[in-house]
């Protein structure tokens, strides 16, 4: 494992709730946040200011992205439009005194460069994973495939966070067949606010407890 204490937040898809879960983890663990690869800045401000606001983070607990691209595409495609190739030498884990929450871009098989996908970056950074999933129909297949891809690389998985309307049957089957834990749930909300994030952060197990569970 890395000498830096932290987690990598990835998902079974894009737009699935990784940023919200990252904000909840940052609030729960008083963590520092880093999104190394940001795309889609032509359409929005990006995930870093969203997490900073939702988690109420001091600016000192924000690490700027290593790369920030305009197009809402995978980093490889977005970089191509700007004639920029991601240099793996810039994707080095920041060493901070606090726990570090690293958020990925899209799902595991999203291309970062010709010879690297997000799952390769996860393996390179050597952090355990929190996997964000949808709660509804289709999630069992997507989640089990993602868990299998991570385990094939020897990446430790702390557990799964379902986002959306509660579905106990899907949670049960993911935990059983994926041999994993449901860490906490993020139900449907009309609006996501700092208050909501603060409330949900109270349901997050400590990182020490989660690491003990996967080492047993």
From TrEMBL:
The active site is at 35. Its EC number is 6.3.3.3. Mg(2+) binds at residues 19, 47, 103. Keywords: ATP-binding, Biotin biosynthesis, Cytoplasm, Ligase, Magnesium, Metal-binding, Nucleotide-binding. Its cofactor is Mg(2+). One of its GO terms (molecular function) is dethiobiotin synthase activity. InterPro entries: DTB_synth_BioD, P-loop_NTPase. It catalyses: (7R,8S)-7,8-diammoniononanoate + CO2 + ATP = (4R,5S)-dethiobiotin + ADP + phosphate + 3 H(+). This is ATP-dependent dethiobiotin synthetase BioD. It comes from Gluconobacter cadivus. The lineage of its organism: Bacteria, Pseudomonadati, Pseudomonadota, Alphaproteobacteria, Acetobacterales.
